[in-house]
């Protein structure tokens, strides 16, 4: 089984809101598989077997590690920006 065997298959992407081929899911803009790849493709083909064959255990571990909620990431970014702003303020 080659890595591109399912590349022409299409699904509606719940994250981006339109139809995509498996190629995109397998290698997103971040050059990593989408974190939802298992959820979206398990009914179409044996995604577990495919992923185990074509990706290392470390890649799969990273992929399966839950990401922070977007709100938590936004709060962290705001706090970092505030800290940087406060550090760069001239003393009065």
UniProtKB/TrEMBL annotation:
Protein name as it appears in the record: Uncharacterized protein
Organism annotation: marine sediment metagenome
């Amino acid at each position: 089984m080659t890595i591109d065997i399912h590349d022409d298959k299409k699904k509606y992407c719940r994250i981006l809101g339109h139809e995509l081929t498996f190629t995109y899911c397998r290698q997103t803009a971040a050059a990593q598989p989408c974190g939802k790849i298992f959820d979206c493709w398990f009914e179409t083909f044996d995604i577990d077997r495919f992923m185990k064959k074509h990706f290392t255990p470390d890649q799969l571990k990273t992929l399966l590690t839950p990401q922070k909620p977007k709100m938590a990431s936004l709060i962290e970014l705001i706090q970092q920006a505030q800290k940087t702003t406060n550090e760069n303020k001239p003393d009065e």
